[in-house]
Predict the structure.
Amino acid sequence: MRKLIERLELVEAKMLTAKDLKKLPMLYSQEEVKDPMVWVKFFNPYGSGSWMVTEYDPKEERFFGYVMGLGGDELGYFTMAELKRNKVEREQYWKPMKLSAAKAYEKKIHGM
């Protein structure tokens, strides 16, 4: 596991940290949680879109979370490769919060 974390740190230095990897719940572990925590947020600096991460599988480099601003807001899966391909960046000043609060915050800052 340590080698996997080190590899991820090198490859995804700007996207996820070792601290994130320790805190992020594994995929499917939050299915019964009504209002899960959003641990990490990504955004598109060149257009619309916010990806709010609630779960992650480091082996598959696959996330689960809430996606806003891409024609419809929804819970779903997305990969690190998709984020990188679309030049998505990590929100460096994001503070973990419940999904309900994160949705309200995003709507407020984007005037929705």
Notes: Strands lie at 37-38, 40-43, 50-57, 62-68, 74-79, 89-90, 97-98. Helices lie at 2-11, 18-23, 80-85, 99-109.
